[in-house]
Design goal:
The complex is a heterodimer of chains A (175) and B (507). Chain A is an alpha+beta fold and 175 residues long. Helix content of chain A is 50%, strand content 14%. Chain B has 18 helices and eleven strands. The chains are: A alpha+beta (175), B alpha+beta (507). Chain A: The chain crosses the membrane at residues 6-27.
Chain lengths: 175, 507
């Protein structure tokens, strides 16, 4: 009987480990990134980045129905982790939700490609190391404002692609 | 306290332990992270034994799996041994079969981990390749679309260097293009994009990300601003290099293959020159060749992030270089065809067809900004031909054309209108200004020595010129402007030739 209860305790223990590890990983990233940024007097909002590093797997604008008819609410962002036990964010997957089908993987942004010029300068000046750079860039990437901006950008790509100039009406639609 | 309550407290403690371990293990190094996890399982086993006198084999198995999964098989085996000793010393559960099971479990977990890691690494590789290839494909497609939109060499060159350097593009820090001239004996610097120093590069990079510039925006920006990377372009445009056996540019073009210069070869003067001028430490050169025609070279380097140039990076540039070579060659051919259609074959001046197009463009705005026209005719040219022969006559026409080109301003257009007649179109110019330019042409021709010119009636080759301006016309059309200038020219001939007459004088 006791053996069975201990097995139950083990299950609870393992499940708690698995279910809270991502939360605590991201919490730690946030806390450490904030600490480093405070030391270096960096404001998260002032860290510029480029959308140009997002790799699209479809030609946009596309004739695929799911992409053609996609709305901004259909764009989903999923964090891509390296391991379930020892979390490490590798990038973000950008999906387009499809009715009655699997979500369509539209684009991917690797954390290694998510470069922030201000941090590049700090690293060149040896004020931060690669590890601190990674923490701050993950924090910036998962920041709600960045996620919203990425969704807006992806939606813009779905609507007009990369080559054409956006008119005001289109801009309003995206915003 | 009842046993049930105690169990509930223990479950609560287990949850707390798991949360606490997760809270602290991400704050430390990966190695310590793994160690904390193993320690938390060990603590759970000890507490189970201490409080409930239960040796949970399942928890022990979990510990061995986690240990082997986190570290190597040796750690799994050590943990198995430690657990076996623990069981032998503090419990009654130890037996050799259990030890054997732990060892097999550890080995099995290790093999399973290797299998999982292999699959995971494969998936990572596929993902990496997918992302890389998708990105490259997008760049090629984008560049191809932009190149198809133009035949202008300057714009094509801008597209190439920007695509190679932009973040969305292939991501090199700097690129420059040199084109082959003089039937393949020399290369001349044409255009470059990129910083001269790392600091300059960081400033540009910050600006690009701040304004969220796309590749197309960067190219459009360069169209608007001729002064992009002025210091770099000044140095590039001064480059005029002889293609000699042994230098790296010659080798790349001759062997039709790219080269990575990981270190500057000081025995190659040209490499040393590039290193000195552009502070290069490592760079790569790509020949731009299409259908056997050597059109130029593309040079790339990374002076900002100092990222080594790999063979993989070279492979990603090759399709772009091939595409660039085709576009440049097409632009050359288009220019040749345009020249043939727009230029006079003998003198190299613009022809009547070009006059129709260009004059229509300026006549449209001639009411706001005066447009003047000079009509020029060589005096007694039939006599010149009869006396000196047609070949000498052609030579004289070429010489006259050259003098006209030297005598007019940068924004003026000179045309051969047919036979010995020439026209000069002067945008934004009133009649007195045009008359002064006509006089300058007349004097320059009079002072020029033409072979056989001494046999002309005046003892030299001379011209007569008629000047008209839209400012003095009631009806502003191209035909009216020509007709007026022609009438004035006729008056100049009547007046005695070798002179300039204007419409104002005539009326």
């Amino acid at each position: 009987m006791n053996e069975l209860i201990m097995a139950f305790v083990l299950c609870i223990f393992v499940l708690t480990i698995l279910m809270t590890s991502r939360y605590f990983y991201l919490l730690d990233i946030k806390l450490q990134a904030r600490k480093i940024m405070k030391r270096l007097d960096i404001n998260i909002a002032e860290l510029n980045y480029s959308f140009e590093q997002i790799s699209y797997f479809y030609t946009l604008p596309s004739n695929i129905t799911a992409l053609k008819s996609a709305r901004k609410e259909n764009i989903l962002i999923e964090y891509d982790y390296d391991s379930i036990l020892f979390q490490q964010l590798k990038g973000i997957k950008i999906y387009v939700e499809q009715q009655d089908k699997h979500d369509l993987l539209l684009a991917y942004l690797t954390i290694n490609d998510f470069r922030l010029p201000s941090l590049d300068v700090l690293m060149e000046e040896e004020k931060i190391d690669e590890n601190s750079y990674l923490k701050i860039s993950i924090y910036k990437l998962i920041h709600p404002v960045t996620i919203k901006q990425i969704k807006d950008e992806v939606y813009k790509q779905i609507l007009i692609g990369r080559y054409d100039v956006m008119d005001d009406a289109m801009n309003e639609k995206i915003v | 306290m009842s046993t049930e309550t105690f169990f509930l407290i223990f479950i609560g403690f287990s949850i707390f332990l798991a949360v606490f371990v997760n809270y602290i293990r991400f704050k430390v190094t990966t190695r310590l992270n793994k160690l904390f996890l193993i320690m938390s399982f060990s603590l759970l086993i000890v507490l189970q034994e201490y409080f409930f006198e239960v040796t949970s084999i399942l928890t022990i198995i979990s510990l061995i799996i986690i240990s082997t999964f986190s570290f190597q098989i040796y750690v799994g085996l050590i943990i198995s041994g430690v657990v076996a000793i623990y069981l032998a010393l503090f419990t009654t559960k130890f037996n050799l079969f259990l030890l054997f099971t732990f060892i097999v479990l550890s080995i099995g977990t290790r093999f399973f981990t290797i299998f999982i890691n292999k699959r995971k690494n494969e998936q990572e590789l596929y993902k990496k390749l997918l992302v890389k290839n998708s990105k490259e494909l997008n760049v090629y497609r984008e560049v191809s679309i932009m190149m198809q939109r133009t035949y202008e060499l300057e714009r094509i060159l801008k597209i190439i260097v920007t695509s190679v350097t932009a973040g969305h593009g292939l991501g090199f820090n700097r690129a420059m293009i040199l084109l082959v001239i003089n039937d393949g004996t020399r290369v001349q610097g044409k255009l470059g994009v990129g910083p001269m120093t790392a600091d300059e590069g960081f400033v540009a990079w910050e600006l690009i990300t701040k304004n969220r510039y796309r590749l197309i925006d960067l190219i459009e920006m360069q169209d608007e601003d001729d002064q992009i990377d002025p210091q770099l372009n000044k140095l590039i445009k001064e480059l005029d290099i002889k293609l000699e056996k042994g230098n790296f540019l010659f080798n790349a073009l001759e062997n039709e293959m790219p080269y990575i210069m990981n270190e500057i070869d000081k025995s190659d003067e040209i490499q040393s020159l590039f290193a000195r001028l552009f502070n290069m430490e490592e760079f790569a050169v790509f020949p731009l060749i299409t259908q056997g025609v050597k059109v130029g070279v593309l040079i790339i380097d990374n002076p900002v992030n100092k990222k080594p140039i790999t063979s993989e990076a070279i492979d990603s540039v090759i399709p772009m270089a091939n595409q660039a070579a085709i576009a440049i060659q097409q632009s050359h051919l288009y220019k040749q065809v345009e020249n043939m259609a727009w230029k006079d074959g003998l003198t190299g001046l613009l022809n009547q067809r070009a006059f129709q197009t260009i004059s229509e463009k300026y006549i449209a705005t001639a009411r706001k900004e005066a447009l003047s026209l000079i009509m020029l005719d060589i005096d007694y040219f039939k006599n010149f031909n009869d006396t000196n022969g047609h070949l000498q006559g052609n030579q004289a026409l070429i010489q006259v054309a050259q003098i006209i080109e030297k005598s007019v301003r940068k924004d003026d257009y000179a045309f051969r209108f047919g036979g010995e007649e020439f026209v000069i179109l002067l945008p934004k110019t009133n009649e007195p200004e045009a008359t002064a330019i006509a006089e300058r042409i007349r004097v320059n021709i009079q002072e020029e020595k033409f072979q056989g010119g001494d046999k002309q009636p005046f003892g030299m080759l001379t011209v007569s010129l008629g000047v008209a301006s839209t400012a003095n016309l009631k009806t502003v059309t191209t035909n009216k402007l020509i007709e007026t200038a022609d009438q004035v020219l006729y008056e100049a001939k009547v007046f005695g030739r070798n002179n300039v007459k204007s419409y104002t004088e005539l009326i």
